[in-house]
């Protein structure tokens, strides 16, 4: 039987690291209901493939400083997210179609589709609500495809000195209202977030 004291620390660190990667790789991402995160863009529905990692879901990598965790239908109202937030109008553009293959490049016809459901930055979303005139005036959000990490971030910042103009409190309440969910109930039942 091997004892850890027989191995150099670097080998132990690699073994532990690999075990953690396997553990977390088997877990799925979570939506605001505490269920498995559903895709934001819909395969074969004539809509562009979304997601920071272009896999159709509102997940990110460590370098996603915008935390693109909010799924909205940018086609659902006349004044879109881009117009209201003052961004260039990518909301009315096209991009590679979601063909249901998790972003692999087997889109043989290289067809572009309109941007419909899109993962937007959770920080821009918070200011979007204010600029749009409140939660009732924003575009439709896709609750099953909103990453719970957004709700967690809003809950952590709500009503703190970092809650500039109450935007994070408002974003938290907006998602709770639109999705008919109480963030504290969901956040308190989950041990870790992905």
Overall radius of gyration = 19 Å
Largest sheet: spatial strand order: 1-4
| Arithmetic mean pLDDT | 82
- Note the beta-strand portion: 5-15%
Principal-axes shape call:
globular
How many strands appear in the DSSP assignment? 4
Instruction: Profile the largest sheet.
Output: 2 strands, antiparallel
Order of helices and strands: HEHEEEHHHH
Total helical elements? 6
Helix proportion range: 25-40%
Q: Which class of secondary structure composition applies to the elements? A: mainly alpha
**Assembly type of the shown chains?**
single chain
* CA-CA gap between termini: 36 Å
- Give the uncertain stretches in residue-range form: 1-27
Fill in the keyword field for this structure.
single chain; 194 residues; mainly alpha; two-stranded antiparallel ribbon; 6 helices; 32% helix
């Amino acid at each position: 039987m091997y004892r850890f004291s027989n191995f150099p620390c670097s080998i132990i660190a690699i073994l532990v690291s690999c075990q953690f990667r396997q553990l977390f790789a088997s877990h799925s991402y979570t939506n605001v209901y505490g269920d498995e995160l559903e895709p934001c863009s819909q395969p074969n529905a004539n809509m562009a493939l979304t997601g920071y990692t272009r896999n159709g879901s509102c997940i990110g990598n460590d370098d996603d400083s915008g935390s693109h965790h909010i799924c909205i239908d940018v086609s659902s109202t006349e004044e879109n997210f881009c117009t209201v937030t003052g961004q260039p109008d990518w909301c009315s553009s096209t991009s590679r179609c979601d063909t249901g293959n998790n972003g692999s490049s087997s889109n043989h016809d290289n067809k572009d589709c309109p941007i419909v459901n899109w993962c937007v930055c959770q920080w821009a979303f918070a200011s979007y609500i204010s600029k749009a005139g409140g939660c009732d005036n924003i575009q439709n959000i896709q609750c099953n495809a909103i990453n719970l990490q957004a709700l967690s971030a809003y809950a952590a910042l709500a009503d703190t000195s970092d809650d500039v103009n109450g935007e994070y409190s408002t974003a938290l309440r907006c998602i709770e209202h639109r999705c008919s969910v109480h963030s504290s109930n969901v956040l308190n039942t989950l041990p870790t977030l992905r």
